[in-house]
Specification:
single chain; alpha/beta; Beta-carbonic Anhydrase, Chain A; 5-stranded mixed sheet; two-stranded antiparallel sheet; 7 strands; 30% helix; binds zinc ion; metal-binding; Carbonic_anhydrase; zinc ion binding; carbonate dehydratase activity; EC 4.2.1.1
Length: 183
């Protein structure tokens, strides 16, 4: 994998012209805003819950969990791994914005299952600098969910650690499977 200064990928627009994917998103936003009415919501999530999940494109968190706009915080990264930055977001979520529950979601077919910490070494060889972050690759989904639950439960910065539950989302069935933190 190399990092080069190539132009953004273009797609053929309906008008036959070329636009980038971001152009397409901006156009979609103009249509969205045209229909938008201010919901008049507070920033504090209605259900007082923060969902930490993988960034995977196949997981529609709101649809999968029956969530509506304003219900929750969604905090996503590669793997849904509880890193220091996830703890930062959870701390703000709980202390400044009133959430009390944490839901952790990993999933089948995660890209991190195919990576190892060698990924960092390969990057280091390519760019001459080792990334300061761990890849957080994992082989055992259930065990990684347990580790993530443990990181939340042992964080000194969080106020609410009694309702922390972890799940694996099956991308082929859409079903969540709960992980027992004690097994
Ligand atoms: Zn993933």
């Amino acid at each position: 994998m190399s990092i080069s200064a190539s132009p953004p990928p273009s797609t053929s627009g309906a008008d036959g012209g070329h636009s980038t994917v971001t152009d397409r998103l901006v156009a979609a936003n103009a249509r969205y805003a045209a229909e938008f009415t201010d919901p008049g919501m507070d920033a504090r999530p209605v259900l007082k819950v923060a969902v930490v999940a993988c960034m995977d494109a196949r997981i529609d968190l709101h649809a999968a969990l029956g969530l509506e706009l304003g219900d929750c915080h969604t905090i996503r990264n590669a793997g849904g791994v509880v890193t220091d930055d996830i703890i930062r977001s959870l701390t703000i979520s709980q202390r400044a914005l009133g959430t009390r529950s944490v839901v952790l979601i990993h999933h089948t077919g995660c890209g991190l299952l195919n990576l190892t910490e060698d990924f960092r070494h390969e990057i280091e060889e390519e760019v001459g600098q080792r990334p300061p972050w761990a890849v957080e690759a994992f082989r055992d989904l259930d065990q990684d969910v347990r580790q993530s639950m443990q990181r939340v439960r042992t964080s000194p910065f969080l106020l609410h650690k009694d309702d922390v539950r972890g799940f694996v989302f099956d991308v082929t069935t859409g079903l969540l499977r709960e992980i027992d933190p004690r097994s």
